[in-house]
Amino acid sequence: MGSWKSRERDAGFAGSRVPDPQFRPSGPQRIVCLTEEPTEVLYALGEQDRIVGISGFTVRPPRARKEKPKVSAFTSAKIDEILKLEPDFVVGFSDIQADIAAELVRRGVEVWISNHRSVEGIVDYVRRLGALVGVAEPANAYADELQRGLDAIAAEAARLPRRPHIYFEEWDEPPITGIRWVAELIRIAGGDDVFPELAAESLAKQRILADAGEVVRRAPDIILGSWCGKKFRPEKVAARPGWDAIPAVRDGELHEIKSPIILQPGPAALTEGVREIARIVCEWAGRHG
């Protein structure tokens, strides 16, 4: 695989590129990342020295929190602090950061806001970000590596004797179902999302369950919870009125997927996140096959 190494680095990633110290890539040299996924990708590519500011919500890779100043949340940012860093490129995600992007553009900063919501979109995001910062070749190699990992998980899942029906809950009050890339990763891992029609909705407010009893009627075999930054409480879910009739509750199949590895549309979801779902599905199949 050329310059790509199959080993864990202290950043917590496999497949990171070891840069040539004599090589200085073209493209922006002072990058601010308003969300975690560009930070994760650039560290994985060995381009972390070009990052001058990150989101305060960044947890991957762990070293980024120690090395880089935190200049944004998700819906807000310290515009003056960002400008002091003299960025030549700012990367963010989704319409929710539109106001941040607009203010930075008005202040003369080049900004790229991606809006991908699918597994294919995440893989393509790696390629596009790499191209924009001048490292297209290693970014394409990294994206190919991510896709091969997904293909391998899908091949394993195809051999399972049964596919469980899965309810993924992104928030509890009110109940919000999983976004598109989550539903797709569930399918790759060998399960079927019980709310596929809602997964297609990009905004969280459009995935709110008006009637939580619909989960009972759809009878998921597994419930996965990832409450967007707070601890999933299986006992609270199981105690909801009427939910004792759900196979997942009856069988004790309520599992937490940590939000940093599934709710960010970046490499973590395509590696640790999908592997955790696949593990849960495989163990369920072993008990119920």
Task: Report what the structure shows.
This protein is α/β, with parallel strands linked by helices and 289 residues long. The protein is 40% helix and 14% strand. The protein has twelve helices and ten strands. The chain has helices at residues 36-44, 62-67, 79-84, 98-106, 119-132, 136-157, 180-188, 196-199, 213-218, 234-238, 247-250, 267-288, and strands at 31-33, 51-55, 70-72, 89-93, 111-114, 165-172, 175-177, 192-193, 222-225, 254-256. The strands form two sheets. The protein has a five-stranded parallel sheet, sandwiched between helices. α5 packs antiparallel against α6 (136-157), α6 runs parallel beside α12 and α7 crosses α12 (267-288). The protein is globular, with a radius of gyration of 20 Å. The two termini are 38 Å apart. Mean pLDDT is 92; it is low at 1-17.
Task: Write the SSE topology.
Layout (H helix, E strand, L loop, with lengths): L30 E3 L2 H9 L6 E5 L6 H6 L2 E3 L6 H6 L4 E5 L4 H9 L4 E4 L4 H14 L3 H22 L7 E8 L2 E3 L2 H9 L3 E2 L2 H4 L13 H6 L3 E4 L8 H5 L8 H4 L3 E3 L10 H22 L1
Parallel strand pairs: 1-2, 1-4, 2-3, 4-5, 6-8, 6-9, 9-10
Antiparallel strand pairs: 6-7
Helix pairs in contact: 5-6, 6-12, 7-12
Pfam family, one: Peripla_BP_2
Organism: Luteimonas lutimaris
InterPro entries: ABC_transptr_periplasmic_BD, Vitamin_B12-ABC_binding
